[in-house]
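Before anything else, study the sequence and fold tokens given here and see whether the fold suits the sequence. Record follows:
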Amino acid sequence: MAIILPHGVLFRGGAEERIRSKLLNDGNIDTVIGLPANLFFSTGIPVCILVLKKCKKPDDVLFINAAEHFEKEKRQNRLLPEHIDKIIDTYKFRKEETRNSRRVSIQEIEKNGNNLNISRYISTALQEEQVDLHAENKKMQSLEQKIAEAKDKHNSFLKELGLPLLP
């Protein structure tokens, strides 16, 4: 069974937490798929698909972050066939891919208080570009030199015209 739900059911406490814990303990939650916001006419919030199975074999839950795979349109976002194919392919073969999908053990989920928030298990952060400070410093020195040369040239024109020089 697959159900579309708001993301809150993945991490909120109270009755939702009890239901989530029971489904996890019984081994019924197979996959959590996060979808982009503004996908449906009735709501602009991001939603998820919870895939439940009665006789699930693996002792893990597959998390798929599909929230970044959509086409933005005027009033609503849209999943294209290639986005849907990627989700289905990842689900069918339980593939793991950085920033996209990960199989998480039930033990790890239990350590996190049965929290199924996708961002807890799949990092979507992009690695920051390394900055070569020495190269940047050389560029700055070169620019400073060019500025000084341009200023000197400009001041020579000002001097010829009998105008005050730049400081």
Q: What stands out?
A: The chain has a mean pLDDT of 91. Helices lie at 15-25, 81-93, 106-111, 118-121, 133-161. The longest helix spans residues 133-161.
